[in-house]
Write a structure and sequence with these properties.
The complex is a heterodimer of chains A (249) and B (325). Chain A is 27% helix and 30% strand. Chain A has 249 residues and is α/β, with parallel strands linked by helices. Chain A has a single domain, classed as 3-Layer(aba) Sandwich (Rossmann fold). In chain A, strand 7 and strand 8 form a beta hairpin. Chain B folds into 2 domains: 173 residues, HUPs (Rossmann fold, 3-Layer(aba) Sandwich), CATH 3.40.50.620; 118 residues, Rossmann fold (3-Layer(aba) Sandwich). In chain B, a hairpin with a 2-residue loop joins strand 2 and strand 3. The chains are: A alpha/beta (249), B alpha/beta (325). Chains A and B meet through helix 3, helix 4, strand 7, strand 8 and strand 9 of A and helix 3, helix 4, strand 7, strand 9 and strand 10 of B. Bound molecules: flavin-adenine dinucleotide (2 copies). The site of one flavin-adenine dinucleotide has 31 residues of chain A, from helix 1, strand 4, helix 3, strand 6 and helix 4. The site of one flavin-adenine dinucleotide (FAD) has 31 residues of chain A, from helix 1, strand 4, helix 3, strand 6 and helix 4.
Chain lengths: 249, 325
């Protein structure tokens, strides 16, 4: 079995992101970058599926040369080789990311294409579904369990009101939710091994992708800040404030 | 801007109220761009829902009612919605964000060749220059975006557009015969519902949320009497959902539900960036935490530094007193 999995780089999920005063972007000075947490779940799923079913895991990322560090982190988790498509974050929208990844799928022809549910920077939750439609493949998004049997993936999905199970025939597109698994920490020998694993760099042009955007970001601002409130000393005071001041009881 | 097709959401054959927020978005956008809107409903045994939506000023309500749509699968639903959009001449499609529409709408967008804006919180400007605001980075950044493609798809953040009130009039309700085409490469297996007698987390006017500090199921249960008394929905952080203390659909935050109740009471939760992304638009925020430095206090209108196991039962007592129950 061959699995293609995304290794998107994001700004540290726990960092407080600030907007540049002129509204043209975010302050990137001093920011750390990590693998998108949802992609870590997807990579863990890919690597453990291959440990069970044998085959190859190929990690793919879109970004400038800096993101190779995070792609190597995916290789250290056990992916066999990496592909980077060279284009900067600022030049992307969800649709372009999806059209690029669809071309990589066509070049690689995997049995399974695994994604993270959402990128914690853009927060769009679109790319997986767009890729599935562009490729006319079945999708199973927000997976909290994946079992491969008889050429299909049986997927438990986290949805409003409960848990849903669907089955998709391979090849299929799946996005990982956080409860799918606990991503492994790369061991030192694997980090060293990852440095020697093959890494291919492609351009959108080489893949034949038109880089025109469908959704352009015009400006950024900080959200309105909530005014900090007060600390109450007792439960009784809290109840009085809620009744008399907030009129919330 | 032409016609906006609003996709209604149903659950167990009934209309989900969140649909009304997308109607307000469509009215706003149509007002600013000189277009109109239609409503599409897709499912099985949902014909009655069409009548329910006839009083909101849509140019038409279109019902795709077919046993083949009894269970949701993204690909055939997307195909049907795009076929409907073509039939009604829609240039855009909109729906309130939920796990159903987050799964479905991007597929619709790809099929329409449309750009999609997720989690729209505001419509800015008008005419051809209309733009949209959406959160990025867990709501720490608000981006203003422009759709460049001729067609557009919008995921609407329900907490930022109020539920539409009926506007009178009667939109024509029409049944549309579009057959499902699921192909052989996907099948629905089953749905295990979380049954709860409490109000829906997304719709409740009071929400009581618990965090890791409540330790286990028994600890989390101290929230029950408080929720009963306030007719509140219960929610939680990722930590309690991951620990199996609360079901997945009660997670509030960047990757769970986004809520904005009249009153939010957060108990024994720290207020991580990802949790705040899902509740900081609440009208009044109360935080109970034993750590005076917990980040949740920075957004709370009323903070109480206390042990939850002591404070919550006391809170129940005090509220009983003033309510005389
Ligand atoms: C400094 C900076 C500036 C940015 N400027 C913009 C901007 O102007 N406009 C904009 O739209 N976005 C911008 N981004 C975010 C950009 O990198 C988005 O992540 C990208 O547009 C896709 O994000 P999304 O939210 O649509 O992904 P989602 O739809 O939430 O992603 C779902 C999944 O798709 C896969 N995926 C998404 N992106 C990639 C990728 N690059 N490589 C591999 N897999 C991927 C992952 O599996 C991910 O979990 C910026 C980011 C940074 C750090
Ligand atoms: C990609 C990603 C997405 C995420 N998405 C979400 C999301 O959607 N929603 C979400 O909630 N989280 C999300 N998280 C997790 C988030 O970062 C935090 O880890 C989580 O919110 C912490 O939950 P908590 O506040 O319950 O636990 P903790 O942070 O451990 O806080 C427990 C709090 O309880 C207090 N406490 C302990 N005992 C008592 C007591 N007896 N009385 C009173 N107070 C007490 C402590 O002082 C502490 O402040 C996400 C994380 C990542 C990386």
């Amino acid at each position: 079995m061959k699995i293609l999995v995304t290794a998107k780089r994001v700004t540290d999920p726990d960092a407080k992101i600030r907007v540049k005063p002129d509204g043209t972007g975010i302050e990137t000075a001093g920011l750390e970058y990590k693998l998108n947490p949802f992609c870590e779940n997807a990579i863990e799923a890919a690597v453990s599926l291959i440990e069970k079913h044998t085959g190859e895991v190929v990690a793919v990322t879109i970004g400038n040369a800096d993101v190779e560090q995070n792609l190597r982190a995916a290789l250290a988790m056990g992916c066999d080789r990496g592909i980077r498509i060279d284009i900067a974050d600022e030049q992307l929208d969800s649709d372009l990311a999806a059209r690029i990844l669809a071309k990589v799928y066509e070049a690689e022809k995997p049995d399974l294409f695994l994604f993270g549910k959402q990128a914690v920077d853009g927060d769009s939750n679109q790319v997986t579904q767009l890729v599935a439609e562009y490729l006319d493949l079945p999708q199973a998004c927000f997976a909290s369990s994946i079992t491969i049997e008889n050429g299909e993936a049986v997927v438990l999905r986290e949805v409003d009101g409960g848990l849903e199970t669907i089955a998709v025939k391979l090849p299929a597109v799946i996005s990982a939710d956080l409860r799918l698994n606990t991503p492994r920490l790369p061991t030192l020998p694997n980090v060293l091994k990852a440095k020697r694993k093959p890494l291919q760099v492609l351009t959108p042009a080489a893949l034949g992708v038109d880089t025109a955007l469908k959704v352009a970001t015009v400006s950024y601002e900080a959200p309105p800040q909530r005014k900090g409130g007060i600390k109450v000393k007792t439960v009784q005071e809290l109840v009085e404030k809620l009744r008399d001041e907030a009129k919330a009881l | 801007m032409g016609t906006i097709l609003v996709i209604a959401e149903t659950f167990g054959g009934k209309l989900r109220k969140s649909t009304l927020n997308a109607i307000t978005f469509a009215r706003t956008l149509a007002g600013k761009t000189g277009g109109d809107f239609a409503i599409g409903i897709i499912g099985s045994g949902i014909a009655a829902v069409g009548g329910e939506l006839a009083g909101y000023g849509a140019k038409g309500v279109y019902v795709i009612d077919n046993p083949g749509f009894a269970n949701y699968l993204a690909a055939p639903f997307a195909k049907a919605i795009v076929a409907l959009a073509d039939q009604v001449g829609a240039t855009s499609v909109a729906a309130t964000s939920s796990t159903f529409t987050r799964d479905l709408l991007p597929r619709v967008a790809a099929r329409l060749g449309a750009g999609m804006v997720s989690e729209v919180v505001a419509v800015i400007g008008d005419g051809a220059g209309v733009k949209f605001t959406r959160p990025m980075w867990a709501g720490n950044v608000m981006a203003t975006v422009e759709v460049k493609s001729a067609k557009a798809v919008f995921g609407v953040r329900g907490t930022e557009f109020e539920a539409a009130a009926p506007s009178g009039g009667a939109s024509p309700v029409q049944t549309v015969a579009i057959a499902p085409d699921a192909g052989a490469n996907q099948r629905y297996v089953k749905f295990e519902p979380v049954v709860s007698s409490r109000p829906d987390l997304g719709e409740a006017s009071v929400v009581v949320a618990g965090g890791r500090g409540l330790k286990d199921k028994a600890g989390f249960a101290i929230l029950d009497p408080l929720a009963d008394l306030l007719k509140a929905a219960i929610g939680g952080t990722r930590a309690v959902v991951d620990a199996g203390i609360a079901p997945n659909d009660l997670q509030i935050g960047q990757t769970g539900k986004v809520i904005a109740p009249n009153l939010y009471i957060g108990v024994a939760l720290s207020g991580a960036i990802q949790h705040l992304a899902g509740m900081k638009a609440s009208k009044t925020i109360v935080a109970i935490n034993k750590d005076p430095e917990a980040p949740i206090f920075s957004v709370a209108d009323y903070g109480l530094v206390a042990d939850a196991f002591k404070a919550v039962p006391e809170l129940v007592e005090e509220i009983r007193k003033i309510k005389g129950v």
